[in-house]
Design a protein that fits this description.
Low-confidence stretches: none
CATH superfamily of one domain: Isoleucyl-tRNA Synthetase, Domain 1
Mean pLDDT: 94
Pfam families: Arg_tRNA_synt_N, DALR_1, tRNA-synt_1d
CATH architecture of one domain: Orthogonal Bundle
Radius of gyration: 30 Å
Structural class: alpha/beta
GO cellular component, one term: cytoplasm
Family: Belongs to the class-I aminoacyl-tRNA synthetase family.
Keywords: Aminoacyl-tRNA synthetase, ATP-binding, Cytoplasm, Ligase, Nucleotide-binding, Protein biosynthesis
Largest sheet: 5 strands, parallel
CATH topology of one domain: Isoleucyl-tRNA Synthetase, Domain 1
Main location: cytoplasm
Distance between the termini: 34 Å
Number of helices: 22
Strand order of the largest sheet: 7-6-5-11-12
Shape: flat
């Protein structure tokens, strides 16, 4: 509907230019917006005010000229000029009837558009270090990322979803050392587990598998393991202690055995993450390994390129990137004094790899705690001769989990956290996916488990699914009563739907396409979630106020046609959010 009104205004402006009434430097971008108050019409445009200065005329006078040049349209009942020069459009009932017909004709594709222009986008989200199971905080990034990707695909973007596997670096070494310590414990050695190690039960599970499959292959006496290792907390330094254990593991085990434990740990945890996300309905096109950037020298090539442009300097044995030259608050280390490359060095190489693969835009969804990391990544792109705006960073606040009104404490390192799998088991995938996207991603979220489990109108996902199920119930009742629905008759008699509840529902359905576009362009799936809840309210209100299976066949067909259009919108919208549309509740 907005597109058709836009075309009417564009036609009017073209006519005014051709007739010499209006002289414009270029074709303007016509903006059509839905009015907040329907007493002011259905849609409005401010083009008269936008163009008045260029046209050297009064906005209201220009508005009058535009209205006078508008082509005839069966969709527009009347136009009005309001305020300083707004043009308000009042649509006919036939216009809304056409929308209902379109919904049923297009079906699953209703609401989709090509506004994205086939732009190639790579989306990277979740990408949690494979050091343990996904927790409820990761779940929010997963739900938000998957829903945003679906919205972009529905609006004409080519989307490639990617999980960046951080399988290189210190955290993986800490994981390996943690598994080895538990393995030594299972071999009968009296090990005092490091404070800075990963302590969850999953570490025991990995160690037990190694012990079962390899016996005592990796066994070394604990006094040999601890020889020369700095003391741990509380009297020592936990960081120095874990680094000492990593050094001992590499020295005593040797490269091959160390790699075996390292691989076993990452494979087990990454496999669990893959399964967890797949069961959650979050599917990736690619799982990209950070280690692969090391193995194929991509990181080395990135550093060499920065050195060639004099963006790298040496200080105290380390290599530093001059990120302050590109807007960062301080320069950043890319190679430490011990020769190890930093995570940031890998990140520069990874983003260059994305662009080299032909993507037009990169969208990264990160936890809000990565906010300070954004400027340095953009600086890396700029230094590489790329436009930083090709990288879009969307931040997600982690979710706080509440059960019985009390907050559940979580700590990944200590292992005392609620996993995403546990959450899904407790409330189900549908509630988890929907609740995660119910608020703006950058806003803090309190996840109420009791509400997510409840079967009431207070639970938004249940409320929406119940609206969909109610429509199916009407169709079952119609069959039981021996009644039939004629789509042709229903569509040709939509003008009979004159009740206020019917008009409100029609308007609600008509908003879906523009809502979808807005949610995609603004990367805000919560817009769709709130829209579906509003549409469910409109359906429930209509259901409670009127009988659908009336004796008047013509009116009955029109009402069934209307609610079937609503059903299709519920199906389409819920699918984009990764939520099912059950036929029974």
């Amino acid at each position: 509907m907005k597109q058709q009104l836009k075309q009417l205004v564009e036609s009017a402006l073209a006519h005014l230019c051709e007739s010499g009434v209006l002289q414009l430097e270029s074709d303007p971008a016509v903006l059509i917006e839905r009015t907040r108050d329907q007493s002011h019409g259905d849609f409005a445009t401010n083009m008269a005010m936008v163009l008045a200065k260029q046209a050297k005329t009064n906005p209201r006078e220009l508005a009058q000229k535009i209205v006078g040049a508008l082509p005839e349209s069966e969709q527009v009942v009347k136009t009005e000029i309001a305020g300083p020069g707004f043009i308000n459009f009042y649509l006919s009932d036939a216009a809304y009837g056409e929308v209902i017909s379109e919904v049923l004709r297009v079906g699953d594709k209703y609401g989709e558009s090509d506004v994205g222009g086939d732009e190639k986008v790579v989306m990277e989200f979740v990408s949690a270090n494979p050091t343990g199971p996904l927790h409820v905080g990761h779940g929010r990034g997963a739900a938000y990322g998957a829903a945003t990707a679906s919205l972009l695909r529905a609006t004409g973007y080519q989307v490639h979803c990617e999980y960046y596997v951080n399988d290189a670096g210190r955290q993986m070494d800490i994981l390996t050392a943690s598994v080895w310590m538990r393995y030594l414990d299972l071999c009968g050695e009296e090990v005092v587990f490091p404070v800075n190690g990963y302590q969850g039960d999953y570490i025991w599970d990995i160690a037990a598998t190694l012990h079962r499959e390899q016996g005592e292959l990796f066994l070394h006496p604990v006094d040999v393991v601890m020889d020369g290792v700095p003391e741990d907390e509380p009297d020592g330094d936990k960081e120095a202690h874990i680094d000492g254990l990593i050094f001992q593991a590499r020295s005593l085990l040797g490269s091959e055995q160390y790699s075996q434990i390292h691989h076993a740990a990452i494979s087990a945890i990454l496999g669990d993450i893959r399964d967890d996300l797949a069961e959650f309905g979050v599917i990736y096109d690619e799982w990209f390994s950070e280690q692969s950037l090391m193995d194929d020298s991509t990181v080395d090539q990135a550093i060499e390129k920065l050195q060639a442009s004099d963006d790298i300097y040496e200080q105290n044995g380390a290599l530093w990137f001059r990120s302050t030259n590109y807007g960062d608050e301080k320069d950043r280390v890319v190679v430490r004094d011990n020769g190890l490359k930093t995570y940031f060095a890998s990140d520069i190489a990874y983003h260059m790899n994305k662009l080299n693969r032909g993507f037009d835009r990169m969208i990264n969804i990160w936890g809000a705690d990565h906010h300070g990391y954004v400027p340095r990544v953009r600086a890396g792109l700029a230094a590489m001769g790329q436009e930083p705006d090709r990288l879009e960073i969307l931040l997600v606040q982690f979710a706080s989990l509440y059960r019985g009104g009390e907050k559940v404490q979580m700590s990944t390192r200590s292992g005392s956290f609620v996993t995403l799998r546990e959450l899904r088991s407790e409330v189900g995938n549908d509630a988890a996916r929907f609740f995660y996207v119910l608020r703006k991603s950058e806003q803090h979220m309190d996840f109420d488990l009791d509400l997510a489990r409840s079967q009431s109108s207070e639970n938004p996902v249940y409320y929406i699914q119940y609206a969909h199920a109610r429509i199916h119930s009407v169709m079952r009742q119609m069959g039981e009563k021996g009644m039939e629905w004629s789509q042709e008759e229903g569509e040709s008699n939509l003008h009979l739907l004159t009740e206020s509840h019917e008009k409100i529902l029609m308007v609600g359905i008509s908003r879906y396409s523009e809502l979808l576009e807005s949610a995609a362009l603004q990367r805000e799936p919560h817009q769709l979630a709130h829209y579906l809840r509003d549409l469910a309210h409109e359906l429930h209100t209509y259901y409670n106020a009127h009988q659908f299976l009336v004796d008047d066949q013509v009116l009955r067909n029109a009402r069934i046609t209307l609610i079937l259009a609503a059903r299709q919108v519920f199906v389409n919208g819920l699918r984009l959010l990764g939520v099912s549309a059950p036929e029974e509740m």
